[in-house]
Amino acid sequence: MANTVIGSSIIIDGEITGDEDLVVQGTVKGKIQLKESLYVEASGKVEADIETQNTEVSGEVTGNITASDKVELKTQCRVIGDIKAPRILIADGASFKGNVDMDV
Amino acid sequence: MSDTACVIGKGIQIRGNLSGSGDLVVEGRLEGHVALEDHIIVEEGGTVVADIETRELTLNGKMSGNINANERVSISSSATVMGDIRAPRVVIEDGARFRGNIEMEVPLPDNI
């Protein structure tokens, strides 16, 4: 479990930056920029442009996702936006609308 | 700690508005405006540059901004605080550094 958790009853409107893992169970609007991994859990809602190393989405994301390593869309997630990463995984049951760029 | 608690770790900076309910622990950096219904703890090493509205606030780290708590503000010996505090109960420990106004909203007797 990561050190930083945005709990399910928390709403953040602004910018999150940092160099450690982040778990979102609540709502984040704005921008997320991390040097490590972002986990958007099933209860999490993110309306933001995301720049990370790894991003794992089980909840809702509206915005563009750029990852230096991997983006994983888990089953039951809802993602609207463009994804750019060398490795992109989309699980069965995930909802996704947008562009995928694997830099090939 | 309840499972709705929010922790901002050492390597994380947040800039903007933070609102909602549930407890918040700040070990990293938080800038902007905070409005929470529960308990905020700024840990040693944590920095908050924000106006805070909350029920209860415990300060062990650095804080700059105005505080409006409807229950209690506690400034521990390791804390450095600049700003105005408005709360019914304010505790400042020996060793704490504080600059600002405190308003406790205490009903004073008429004959003073």
Write structural notes for this entry:
The complex is a heterodimer of chains A (104) and B (112). The model of chain A has no long low-confidence stretch (mean pLDDT 93). With 104 residues, chain A is an all-beta fold. In chain A, strands 1, 2, 3, 4, 5, 6, 7, 8, 9, 10, 11, 12 and 13 form a 13-stranded parallel β-sheet that branches. Chain A contains no helices and 13 strands. Chain B is an all-beta fold. Chain B has one domain (6-98). Chain B is built from no helices and 13 strands. In chain B, strands 1, 2, 3, 4, 5, 6, 7, 8, 9, 10, 11, 12 and 13 form a 13-stranded parallel β-sheet that branches. Chain B starts with 5 loop residues before the first strand and ends in a 9-residue tail after the last strand. The mean pLDDT of chain B is 90. Classes of the chains: A mainly beta (104), B mainly beta (112). Chain A binds chain B through residues 2-20, 22, 26-27, 30, 36, and chain B through 3-24, 27-28, 32, 36.
List keywords for this structure.
heterodimer; A: mainly beta; 13 strands; 0% helix; 63% strand; globular; B: 112 residues; 13-stranded parallel beta sheet
Write the layout of secondary structure elements.
The complex is a heterodimer of chains A (104) and B (112).
Chain A: E1 4-6, E2 10-18, E3 22-24, E4 27-34, E5 37-40, E6 45-57, E7 60-62, E8 65-73, E9 78-80, E10 83-84, E11 87-90, E12 95-97, E13 100-101
Parallel strand pairs in A: 1-3, 2-4, 3-5, 4-6, 5-6, 6-7, 6-8, 7-9, 8-10, 8-11, 9-12, 10-13
Chain B: E1 6-8, E2 12-20, E3 24-26, E4 29-36, E5 39-42, E6 47-59, E7 62-64, E8 67-75, E9 80-82, E10 85-86, E11 89-92, E12 97-99, E13 102-103
Parallel strand pairs in B: 1-3, 2-4, 3-5, 4-6, 5-6, 6-7, 6-8, 7-9, 8-10, 8-11, 9-12, 10-13
* Number of individual domains of chain B: 1
Low-confidence stretches of chain B: none
Calculate the mean pLDDT score of chain A and round it. Answer: 93
What do the pLDDT scores of chain B average to?
90
Given as residue ranges, the uncertain stretches of chain A (5+ residues, pLDDT < 50) are none
N-to-C series of helices and strands of chain B? EEEEEEEEEEEEE
SS element count, helices of chain B: 0
Pair of chains with the largest interface and how many residues each contributes? A-B, 24 and 26 residues
Large-scale geometry of chain B: globular
Run of helices and strands of chain A: EEEEEEEEEEEEE
Q: Given the helix and strand composition of chain B, which structural class is it?
A: mainly beta
Question: Count the helices of chain A. How many?
Answer: 0
Helix proportion of residues of chain A, in percent? under 10%
Main pleated-sheet profile of chain A: 13 strands, parallel
* Spatial gap, N to C terminus of chain A: 33 Å
Structural class of chain A: mainly beta
Outline type of chain A = globular
Provide the β-strand percentage band of chain B: over 45%
Measured by DSSP, the beta-strand proportion of chain A falls in over 45%
- Work out the oligomeric state of the chains in this entry: heterodimer
Biggest sheet of chain B, in brief? 13 strands, parallel
